[in-house]
Amino acid sequence: MHLPLSDDFLSIVLNETPLLDVRAPIEFNKGKFINAVNIPILDDEERRLVGTKYKEAGNAAAIELAESLIKNEGKEKRVALWQEYLKENPDAKLYCFRGGQRSGISQEWLKEANIDITRLKGGYKAFRNFLIQQTEEISAVTPTLILGGPTGSGKTILLNKLQNAIDLEGIANHRGSSFGSFTNAQPSQIDFENNLAYKLIQFHHKDFNKLVLEHESHNIGRTFIPKPVYDNFMQGELVLLQTPLDVRARITYEEYVVSALREYEMLYNDAGLQKWAENVKAGLKRIQKRLGNQLYTQLTYLFDEAYFIHTQSEAKALYIEWITLLLERYYDPMYDYQIQKSPIPIVFQGDEQSVLDFIKKQETKI
């Protein structure tokens, strides 16, 4: 039986094609693609048993064991779940790890149910290799504008106003600081790389002259930009966003207090304020050595006072006082040092509107 195969991975990325992943959940959770749904042909334990049988007795024995584990009822259940997904996503593609037996059997079962689906040639592994290769190649030839500025300058706000930007912190699901975690977990490293590849490939096929990125370190939370890609990104030019300290403190307050607290309250209800405060205190503890004992004690006292008042009434002014001290005494000196040591040439600096105007003049290919 000749069933359709495809390795047109570029089309999948550009069209964000839905994907049916029939690998075991443990494989899916280690690494997946955008718009992929996991409806496995073998669950984790079944996969383990079949894998052990393959090592001990070879391919034929492993297939026989898999068939005995699934049996008729299991097969019907799996096909029904796939059919339900494909009714909503008729253009979906199918894959397993190497595009071999598991996806091949799944494709045959769907054909028996009068459903045609294209299988990815080489499966997850081939698509993943394509994404890695494309990321390195595109980053090597793409001119970049690197948006810098002290903490709280509004860099992410500005990035989201541009069509030729990629929000690395958004992909990493992290704000990029000691206090930058969200209540929902960061993606796995593999997912981060896959998602970055999608964004970069999609950017490459649009009509823009330069890619705009935030001036990030190699790591964003617990994820990291692969070194060859990071080195390519940092070959660009630096644009500095200048924002007054009082405005930066308000921006930081809105993001790290108001928005963050809203997340915690949605997750923990009445305990949200306490959980959020514990997370902030843990962030302070992580940077205690760099702060020094005196500044750490001062910041902890200010935050505790603001938190105590917050449990009774509004504490915005005290939170902003705490944020301002943290910016002035910790983040600003650290950022000034980084800029002084940075080999990236500064080509422009100004307020938000002037930076936007500068970037947009260079936005479209001639």
TrEMBL record:
Q: Please report a single Pfam family linked to this protein.
A: AAA_SelU
Which SMART domains does the UniProt record give?
RHOD
Coiled-coil region(s): none
Q: What is its EC number?
A: 2.9.1.-
List GO molecular-function terms, semicolon-separated: tRNA 2-selenouridine synthase activity
Q: What Gene3D superfamilies does the database record attribute to this sequence? A: Rhodanese-like domain
Keyword annotations? Selenium, Transferase
Q: Which PROSITE patterns match?
A: RHODANESE_3
Q: What class of enzyme is it?
A: transferase
One Gene Ontology BP term is: tRNA wobble uridine modification
Q: Which residues form the Rhodanese domain?
A: 13-136
Which PANTHER family does the entry mention?
Answer: TRNA 2-SELENOURIDINE SYNTHASE
UniProt name for this protein? tRNA 2-selenouridine synthase
- Source organism per entry reads Sulfurimonas autotrophica (strain ATCC BAA-671 / DSM 16294 / JCM 11897 / OK10)
